[in-house]
Amino acid sequence: MIARFGERVKSGQQYRLRPGAYAILIRDGRVLLTHQAHPIPEFQLPGGGIDPGEGPIEALHREVFEETGWAVTGLRRLGAYRRFTYMPEYEFWAEKLCSVWLARPVLKRGLPPEPHHTAHWADPEDALELLANEGERAFFQRFVRR
């Protein structure tokens, strides 16, 4: 069974399945996060939706670059969780099926090209406090405790 986090499922609400891939990015004992300034300012694990015709690894490479400007290597899948939420940037309710990966940032290719995103390095303890999404926090906390 896949763990579920976030809002309760609203009876009668239609949800669109939105698979996504997200990464815990560790380098030199620090964690690379993205800060999304709009529509809701928050710190997140870099990642996002898997586009039609795209696999999770391809999506993860694309999303990490778009949100942080970094290239990654050494991907290892840690697991998945579900989250039911309204996505204001797309104006629909989504059942997000989020796969979480561990990876290592290896090359800064430039600034994040995705609008409203900036890359931030944090100590693991601080990252745990900064992450806004409880599913991301749960996976990160399990990783940190190892």
What does this structure look like?
The protein has helices at 56-68, 124-130, 134-145, and strands at 3-6, 16-27, 30-36, 42-44, 47-49, 70-87, 92-108, 117-122. It is globular, with a radius of gyration of 14 Å. The two termini are 22 Å apart. 22% of the residues lie in helices and 48% in strands. Helix 2 runs antiparallel to helix 3. It is built from 3 helices and 8 strands, in the order E-E-E-E-E-H-E-E-E-H-H. Strand 2 (16-27) and strand 3 form a beta hairpin. Strands 1, 2, 3, 4, 5, 6, 7 and 8 form an 8-stranded mixed beta sheet that branches. With 146 residues, the chain is an alpha+beta fold.
Contiguous helical run count: 3
Q: Describe the sheet with the most strands.
A: 8 strands, mixed
Q: What percentage of the residues does DSSP assign to strands (E)? A: over 45%
What's the N-to-C terminus distance? 22 Å
Share in helix = 10-25%
Count of β-strands? 8
Uncertain runs with pLDDT below 50, 5 residues or more? none
Q: Helix-strand pattern, N to C?
A: EEEEEHEEEHH
- Name the average pLDDT: 95
Summing up helix and strand content along with how strands pair, one would put the structural category as alpha+beta
User: What integer value in Å does the Rg equal?
Assistant: 14 Å
Shape, per Cα inertia axes? globular
